[in-house]
Amino acid sequence: MAAAAAAAAVGGPQPPQPELPAPGLALDKAATAAHLKAALSRPDNRAGAEELQALLERVLSAERPLTAAADGEEAAVAGGGGGPGAAEEEALEWCKCLLAGGGGYDEFCAAVRAYDPAALCGLVWTANFVAYRCRTCGISPCMSLCAECFHQGDHTGHDFNMFRSQAGGACDCGDSNVMRESGFCKRHQIKSSSNIPCVPKDLLMMSEFVLPRFIFCLIQYLREGYNEPAADVPSEKDLNKVLQLLEPQISFLEDLTKMGGAMRSVLTQVLTNQQNYKDLTSGLGENACAKKSHEKYLIALKSSGLTYPEDKLVYGIQEPSAGTSTLAAQGFAGATGTLGQLDSSDEEDQDGSQGLGKRKRVKLSSSTKDQSIMDVLKHKSFLEELLFWTIKYEFPQKMVTFLLNMLPDQEYKVAFTKTFVQHYAFIMKTLKKSHESDTMSNRIVHISVQLFSNEELARQVTEECQLLDIMVTVLLYMMESCLIKSELQDEENSLHVVVNCGEALLKNNTYWPLVSDFINILSHQSVAKRFLEDHGLLVTWMNFVSFFQGMNLNKRELNEHVEFESQTYYAAFAAELEACAQPMWGLLSHCKVRETQEYTRNVVRYCLEALQDWFDAINFVDEPAPNQVTFHLPLHRYYAMFLSKAVKCQELDLDSVLPDQEMLMKLMIHPLQIQASLAEIHSNMWVRNGLQIKGQAMTYVQSHFCNSMIDPDIYLLQVCASRLDPDYFISSVFERFKVVDLLTMASQHQNTVLDAEHERSMLEGALTFLVILLSLRLHLGMSDDEILRAEMVAQLCMNDRTHSSLLDLIPENPNPKSGIIPGSYSFESVLSAVADFKAPVFEPGGSMQQGMYTPKAEVWDQEFDPVMVILRTVYRRDVQSAMDRYTAFLKQSGKFPGNPWPPYKKRTPLHPSYKGLMRLLHCKTLHIVLFTLLYKILMDHQNLSEHVLCMVLYLIELGLENSAEEESDEEASVCGPERCHDSWFPGSNLVSNMRHFINYVRVRVPETAPEVKRDSLASTSSDSLSSLQNSGTAQVFSLVAERRKKFQEIINRSSSEANQVVRPKTSSKWSAPGSAPQLTTAILEIKESILSLLIKLHHKLSGKQNSYYPPWLDDIEILIQPEIPKYNHGDGITAVERILLKAALQSRMNKRIIEEICRKVTPPVPPKKITAAEKKTLDKEERRQKARERQQKLLAEFASRQKSFMETAMDVDSPENDIPMEITTAEPQVSEAVYDCVICGQSGPSSEDRPTGLVVLLQASSVLGQCRDNIEPKKLPITEEEQIYPWDTCAAVHDVRLSLLQRYFKDSSCLLAVSIGWEGGVYVQTCGHTLHIDCHKSYMESLRNDQVLQGFSVDKGEFTCPLCRQFANSVLPCYPGSNVESNLWQRPSNKSIQDLIKEVEELQGRPGAFPSETNLSKEMESVMKDIKNTTQKKYRDYSKTPGSPDNDFLFMYSVARTNLELELIHRGGNLCSGGASTAGKRSCLNQLFHVLALHMRLYSIDSEYNPWRKLTQLVEEVNSQQGNEEQQPEVPILYHDVTSLLLIQILMMPQPLRKDHFTCIVKVLFTLLYTQALVALSVKCNEEDRSAWKHTGALKKNTCDAEKSHEVLLSFVISELSKGKLYHEEGTQECAMVSPIAWSPESMEKYLQDFCLPFLRITSLLQHHLFGEDLPSCQEEEEFSILSSCLGLLPTFYQTEHPFISASCLDWPVPAFDIISQWCFEINSFTERHAEQGKALLIQEARWKLPHLLQLPENYNTIFQYYHRKTCSVCTKVPKDPAVCLVCGTFVCLKGLCCKQQSYCECVLHSQNCGAGTGIFLLINASVIIIIRGHRFCLWGSVYLDAHGEEDRDLRRGKPLYICKERYKVLEQQWISHTFDHINKRWGPHYNGL
């Protein structure tokens, strides 16, 4: 209301009515416009200008949307209706007229378009638009093209993809700053400025006058419509209302921009002209309205926390907005980076409502850069104020589109970019407060990406508008709002602040637009250079990065499980990646050459300063606080990555950028802490922190993060290790991993910091870490291609991968401009070098695989690198998977039969700068650890595993590979003060230390340890004591004491005052062991060297004494050519042999000592070291392990059995291994058929009381109706012209026929003359399992009570077969009866055909009484109900009188017909293959026939009407004529469908049927069929042929077998039918139907056979099912003769030498000519009146082709481009989820509410109409096929795959997709065989919502 009131007040002084132009004027707008234009064209145009101004004043002020006439006011507020609508329309009309200057507006538009010098496309789109990106043509990674420009350019062979725009965008075609010209489309290739004529001055003259007023008017509306939102109430409603009212105005502007370049340049002038703006908006002058408007503008500025320059006293000191001060380098000169120490002017920020409180401001020093640029909001032009309101209104889509549509105008582009930068801080403040931040973010990026992707523009605004300063400052400002005190290290006194990851700003990624812009501009070299040169900026940036250092700190829960698992870690990882790592990669991409050394020095310098500040702030000395870890150390990672770049690309000397030793020691602590924590997390030590901590550990190494997180961390540790004292480093590692106490020779020890159950995995973790540290070369000398190759091999070794998952898993540089683009040339070439492509295959179970890449054999052989695999696995099971695959490869290729150990892989040479890293391998501390561990493993101490041994050997081997060359290292060993270890080893070279024997070791052990007892014994024997004194004291070894000493030395060396360093309290834990009282000292006798331990280990591993024999004694060659393939792969034994060989090679001494050790026969390893108790636990462990392995084996075996069972049970096409059905067993035992119940497991016959039933699935099917009569498959329409009309489908033809019959004949008779069920017929299928019906009922009851969510609906009777789990929904009762019966019935009788005909008639005449109420009969009734309910009513009721019994009758025999026809289709449309067929085993037709017959016999046909009479008796002429007039006649017998007659006759007989009755029926019907064929043939041919045949046939009429000669019969038919009018109507239009071929006797015979074949096939199938006779197999050409003899139509003595004649099968029950003439008479009497229809009914198309789905185009793009923009026929909008039916090609909306009818959405509705409940739809936007079956649906998968054989669901990757014919065939097969329910497993209910 307030708005309206204010507006009303504004409108007060000028009552709107009289101000309108006079009516005459209004009517004649065109004349006025023409007049004004003329006036303005005069040289002295002041008068004209004033007149125009006055007119515009009147017209446009009348256009107040919020100032309606008083009475319209309420309406205006309510919804903007009422008065103003008309006025606005009027105003727009005026504007259009004035612009056109009196002409028509449309002509004006056309005229302006002619002058469009459009070299740029510039089409603007919004979210969800489908656009293209071509990496080959793009210069900027953000380049995008609209579909039209893309398809008109040539991008063949390029790396392009289609994508759905997230935030909107604009087409870059024609812009050579963003893309290469070769990629421009045809329209934008011509640089067209030259040939476009100049714009005539008078064309756009009016526009220059009218538009400023129009835009000003728009701005006034925006000013007045805006009300400051109350503190917390979102005011979107009001804003949206204003925007709705302004819709027409903004659309009008948008249309102007689309007129082309000429109009755009006028608009640019108007928008950027400062004079215009000043004149119109200053708010001075006497117009109260304008004043008011200006006041609102100032209020809006104020409330935004911005000031208008006029109010300021001093320029440039008090900044306009919190975050927009320029940070000059000097401002930071004295400050050390934390905001707290800066001078702060605590000025209250206006947005206090956000609860941000006081913001610390950075006071500017005197040397401020040009402050006026930062004076943001002094608006000097329309453009600037328009942008201001666009921001205020939170970026309405229409405004954004208008502003972007103007961008092709170069002058505008520059002005707009500057304006945007000027408002940048304001934009971000608005975003932070916004309630719709997602939408707003997208709109902001939509704009900024267009501006900042252009390097030239970005450079210009960086120089002129200080873009970088603004961005960094705004970023700081944004993050400052959510800082908290860091709790890392010293909780109380920490001065460090970090971002709080729980804040909305981080959780919702609100900072994303800002960071995205920042990354975008840093990708331009010129901008990045400025950033790297500006020290002030770098300081600020490091300050920003330090906010993330140590965020999301985890503290290990030691007591209870944490109550609430926080999920903040997502936000933390995302923030580090986006806000820290991506800008870092952007900067790194510009530091590639020597000349950029300076930049690296700058970054490293400020990075180290920031790190030093951080260590000070968290109060860090030398020990990290226990039980905490943060995964976020962005400062460490910046430092590491710039170091790496400096050495790799810029040839910088590493030492020149490294700090002192003390700093290095600090630097290594936190990354090392993370590595140790990873091991702890994997050892389940953090389990009380919940799952999220595992999530963090996984994310840290995951492919998108690893090269910004774990890789720099490990590299930094490698750098530290290469420069620090190796003993210090090694002992630090073991201490961090908490396994120091474990490294003792004693068999028992106490660990103060670790539980025993975690020791083993932590020790494995520590050793694995050392192996990774020493063998990884990612930053230490590998080239980019080598890295790519190593990454790819590691991923492929874990699992076969699809192309897209490989692209995803290979860590690419996160910055898109870095050069290594996924999919680039190097990627593809490396991939083809290391992997083989496995094409997608199909498993019988129906699961579809994608195309996969699998490693080549030589990769397994030479390149498999377990270290890289361990580094890159997110899940530990992947390491196992890689090893299993490696094992399988070795077994298969015969290289190694057993369980291999991870192979040792040669490394690429180290870069010289990092040579120091190898000193770790040659330090005594490591050697002592290795010696101790080897000894412990040999003595079977607790908590050691094969993995430990494997890593120990790996480290020894690494040391041997990287040893110093000189061997005379013993003499040179230092004799200075560092002799602390000499008692252990003489020097530090591993090669010589290996042979050094260690005799005695003094250990601290618990008093209970076995060593103590022995010690006392030893002391009595004098000689052991004396030897002790001789060798000096025994060695004592304490890692911790060692490390302390080293640390102290380093500190002393680095600074004298560091002596005052106070040790933190924590260190008391680490004081040398001995503090615990119950420890005592013991001396062990060892007398081993590393070499002797290795040899004994070999014996232990091989389980044989003296198993090691030095190979060089036999073959001296080995020492000369050491690379022996036999040592490459193998287990521990091989590894030991390989190491000993290498040791011998390195030194002659070692070689000699190895030989010596081998000569001494080594006594067996003393087992007495293990106490009985320990032995027990070890045995237990072992037994457990074995049991576990056995269990695994059993489970695996069980799983494979189950799988093979499922496959056989599910597979539609594998009859051999099925569970046979014992229904049609034909052995002559006198037993009844026996059935097994799969529920209770009992066997027995089916009885009246306890019937057995078959598990069946009933489903309605329209597959038959989809048969067409032409071979050419229908294609899916992909243009407007192609449409599919269903008139030629089988269903349509049958429908037409039935309705035609119903027009002219008696209804009840019509319903017996045809079959239905072509559409919506009921198909019955079974898995072949049987169950007692009462068992089934209780089974259903239990399912009903089962609360588990099933994929089916029990209420609808659905269930899964209890045995094979196949989907089913009914049970078909088995009719009790013995097998013998059927044998008796099959004996041929010698009765004549006449007798049989009488018997048949009698049997049919007996009324079928329903058997007494038994369980069986009840079940039969209920299953019949099920069958009826399976299909919809419209597919059952065809009668004119609803509910007539004829309907049921027709429906029942049609069910039989449907099932027979479908079986025929499953056999491929003919019976040539013969045999029992795939369907035979599982067929339930026999049972189905019993059920149908039982019900059909309830309806006895009146013997009058029984067609049997007409077929077998001659009727007197008289009664056929009577009563013709008053009622419709019966259907003539020749119009009857013979197959339907067959089923009626058979189902009317009492069951079981006798074979000879069956044959009799078939013979009789064949005569009718043959006559029909002759009639059809006679109609098909022309007049001359007819008379010729009539003549030739008549001559033979009296020969002996005239009744079996088709010529005679044909001529007789022709002569009979000639009596009627059938042939008369042969006009010209009929010629089309007549086939042009001349009929030879052969072609006639072929026609007759083809006409009869379908009937013979169905009949043979029926006979096969009823009597269990096998079908013979045959060639296609002899199918007719074979089937007819099998049916008993052919006399058995028939000889097949001379050509076969179909007529010889005829066996006329009555004289042929009499019966034919009787049949023809019926036809003639009908054609008297309806000759046309009479002919149409006679020609039946019997030859249907098999049903097929529509043929799809090769390339998916053709479908996509046509359908994804196609509009819905109901609402004419483009549907959100378009889909197309693959059966009939109908376009439907998935889930579209517009097309909903009675709560059914369109897809569900269509599936019922088109497929009777089965629908197959292709989802256009997802490329996926969805199946609807009844009330369930499932996603089937895609039949379109990309070049690498992968699906692209939802088109996420947007690569070109091609049809996969095999998959489509599988889909079609499942459709035809009705097996969707069985093969697809993931079904869900759709609730009619699809």
* Total E-strand runs: 28
Judged by helices, strands and strand pairing, the structural class is alpha+beta
Average pLDDT number = 78
Shape: flat
Give the proportion of residues in helices. Answer: 40-55%
What does this structure look like?
With 1890 residues, the chain is an alpha+beta fold. Helix content is 49%, strand content 6%. It has 74 helices and 28 strands. A six-stranded antiparallel β-sheet has the order 22-21-23-24-25-28. It has a three-stranded antiparallel β-sheet with strand order 3-2-4. The protein has a three-stranded antiparallel β-sheet with strand order 17-16-20. Helix 30 crosses helix 32 and helix 57 crosses helix 60 (1485-1496).
Quick tags:
disordered N terminus, alpha+beta, six-stranded antiparallel β-sheet, 1890 residues, three-stranded antiparallel β-sheet, 49% helix, single chain
List the helices and strands and how they pair.
Blueprint: H1 2-11, H2 16-19, H3 23-27, H4 29-41, H5 46-61, H6 73-79, H7 84-100, H8 105-114, E1 124-125, E2 130-134, E3 145-146, H9 147-152, E4 160-164, E5 169-170, H10 205-225, H11 236-257, H12 261-272, H13 274-281, H14 288-303, H15 371-374, H16 382-392, H17 397-405, H18 410-422, H19 424-433, H20 437-452, H21 455-465, H22 467-480, E6 483-485, E7 497-499, H23 504-507, H24 512-522, H25 525-533, H26 535-546, E8 554-555, H27 568-588, H28 597-617, E9 628-629, H29 634-648, H30 661-682, H31 691-701, H32 710-723, H33 726-736, H34 756-775, H35 784-798, H36 803-809, H37 825-834, E10 835-838, E11 852-855, H38 857-863, H39 866-872, H40 876-892, H41 924-938, H42 946-961, H43 990-993, E12 998-1006, H44 1010-1020, H45 1022-1030, H46 1039-1054, E13 1079-1088, H47 1090-1102, H48 1117-1120, H49 1132-1146, H50 1148-1159, H51 1172-1210, E14 1235-1236, E15 1243-1244, E16 1252-1261, H52 1290-1304, H53 1307-1313, E17 1321-1332, H54 1333-1345, E18 1359-1360, E19 1367-1368, E20 1370-1373, H55 1379-1386, H56 1393-1405, H57 1415-1430, H58 1445-1466, H59 1477-1481, H60 1485-1496, ...
Antiparallel strand pairs: 1-5, 2-3, 2-4, 6-7, 8-9, 10-11, 12-13, 14-15, 16-17, 16-20, 18-19, 21-22, 21-23, 23-24, 24-25, 25-28, 26-27
